[in-house]
Structure prediction request, 265 residues.
Amino acid sequence: MNNILVPIGTSPDSSNTLQYAIDFAANFGAKVFVMDVFSVTTAVGSLANVEEKVAKSSKEHLKEVIEKVETKGVEIKMATYNGDIIDGLKDINKELGIDLIIIAPRSNDIQEELYLGNTSGRIIKQTNIPTLIVPKGTQFKPLKKILTAFGSGILKRSSILNPLVSIKNKFRSDISLLLVKRPGYSEDDLKVNTALMDLSKQLTITENATTYLGVMEHFQQEHPDMLCVFRRKRGFFKKLWEKNTIRKAEFFVPIPVLVLSVKKD
Prediction:
């Protein structure tokens, strides 16, 4: 794990997410890229330096956030992008190779309706970059117990698991696998990829309407430090794909959630 990206928005808590990312990166010797996105469209004949001025203001904002954290020897680089955040993430990933994005959910407040807002929801659903969702105010600690939940054991490439493997190797994590048999599952779904099986000595199979309900059933007895799920169009976020936001009534856990990417599924 070499390059970790933290998108910085206007949230006053963004420095907390960045601090978690720095503490996490320090364990891997990784670089942290902080990114701010803005949108400026200049019409013909308008001031040519408008974009330049906004980019400068954006960098100043990033500097202010960085000044609030302890860098702990981690190399931090700034990146700004004029345009849509998804396009920006794809561009920077193409240029640098991003191993992990670290973001915060919309809010920890159970009264707040949304778990993921529009921007964070789009990052989860419209990119193929592994993403760690870290509840606001979470203090970094070694991820010793990881619950990995899925509705299908099929993986087209074992490299999908690289972030999880890196975390397991670094923290000597105990990984438990939870296979949730959902309505309409196929026999192939029950064949768990060997690379996934190699990560754990414990496989639990349960039946639920959704993978999330299966997670909630086992969450309290497992008490994991992190939940790992897969980003597939018919997987963990199956019923949540129509819109970018995700409501707490549909999904909420108070621990970091690692979302791994499975393309074309």
